[in-house]
Design brief:
Blueprint: H1 6-28, H2 33-55
Helix pairs in contact: 1-2
């Protein structure tokens, strides 16, 4: 039995990349740490909400 399916691993990696990119752009624009965490979490949630339905 595999721990992760290929699609699940792809969604997980995409969530991490999107969250890191959004948080770093927020900090680069002069945002605060709490704002960067909220933006990163929101972008990860958006990937989680849309990508699995696209991969079907």
């Amino acid at each position: 039995m595999k721990l992760f399916d290929t699609k699940a691993a792809l969604v997980l990696v995409a969530m991490i990349v999107a969250a890191a990119l959004a948080a770093s752009l927020t900090l680069a624009a002069g945002g605060t740490w709490p704002a960067a965490l909220l933006v990163g979490g929101g972008s990860a949630w958006g990937v989680l909400a849309t990508l699995p339905s696209v991969l079907k």
